[in-house]
Design goal:
mainly alpha, 3-stranded antiparallel beta sheet, elongated
Length: about 350
Amino acid sequence: MKAMVCEMCQSNELIKQDGVYVCQHCGTKYTVEEARKLMVEGSVKIDHSDELIKLYEVARRAKADHNSENAQKYYELILLSDPHSWEANFYSVYFQAMNCKIAEIENAADRLTNAQGSIIELIKTNIQNPEEQQRIIDEITEKVINVSWTLHNAAYAHYHNIDPSIRGNYTQTYVRNCKAASRMLFLFGNGIVESFGDAYGYIAATCWKVEVQQEIRIMDAYAMVKPLREAHKNGIIYAAERVRKYDPSYQMPEIKTGGCYVATAVYGSYDCPQVWTLRRFRDCTLAETWYGRTFIRAYYAISPTLVKWFGSTEWFKNLWRPTLDRMVVMLNKSGVADTPYDDRVW
């Protein structure tokens, strides 16, 4: 005789209550005869419709309450008996991504990205009403953008909270995480257009605009390596060109590629209080005079090469750190702020 296992969720926690056996994991009920067949034959034909309706109710309630953990659990249970549900297929991986830890960001984003094609196809195949189809596509577009920003922001905040002296050791992971989040948007937009045509081009454009925003935001990771910075910039421009196919009036945000190469190498980031101070001094003081601008041009002509050769070495950082520290302290005392700063165009 086999152990009694729930056909709905594969749990073996079935307890007899009020004359029926109830799965303690998903709530599915079995009559005594059905329970006997489960133990003898290993399976039994049961009408799960009532249980499925209840699972959808609790899953949607958890979703509305932003209870990611429960929503993920219930949508995963729904998939066991309703594998063709676009809703369960999407939200099970969506909430899995929303629940992930920092170390899991890239994998979580990739899982959702890989699932998008089949989810779009389920919507196209099973939802024939045009209004309902559009409502669903709009809904999951909002969610894809939401989870992409959530993962991107988590990676961005974690990276920029690392001590600047060791931040460079984590740059590669930071870039992978952020690019996994933006790749989700790129491929979702592509998938929508491939499946539904230009009628949903506005969806693709919306996703690609966010992709551009996110890719521009991580330009600081490429501040010290010109070839990588230029390749990244070209990728952003290409994404913006895709947007203009469906939104000709779109204006791509300005890409900040200005240097502070030595300071970035010393402090480990283009965005940290010390470099914000120096960038603000460069734009608001040095750039205001002809000799200041001459110095800036000379600095940008020489410093990228120095940083490329020596920027990762400890002796280079130790050589420049005391001088830059003194300069930053002096500038802060004279009123130059060390708060977040966007470069001025000059």
